[in-house]
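Standup notes
- DV: blocked on the single-chain target, sequence here:
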Amino acid sequence: MSLNEFLFLFRRKTEARYKTIPPEKLVSFNSRWNDWIKGLAIKDQLSAQLKHWDLQGKILRSGNMVTPGPYLENDDYIESFIMVYAADYQEAREIAESCPIFELDGSVEVRMAI
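- DV (later): unblocked, structure below
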């Protein structure tokens, strides 16, 4: 079976970034997150490792316009992303549904490389 590469963009609300998470919940979440990523790697589903991004980006537009970034849609920001291998959108969705980001009211955008 041929596998496709999928981008998983992990998003959270900007306001959630600044909420205080109890230390025990954060430790527990980080442990589950690391286990989830390791599980993907063990199953050879992980194509590109996890990356985290700051909130200091810039947006460049035609006409030499540069604005502070990142662009926040619906007050969401990109927390991080990974690339995974899956047969199709159904399998990619199943992988994404097991992600711990939902515990912190986050979301996962799933896109297939073409």
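- Follow-up: The longest helix spans residues 23-42.
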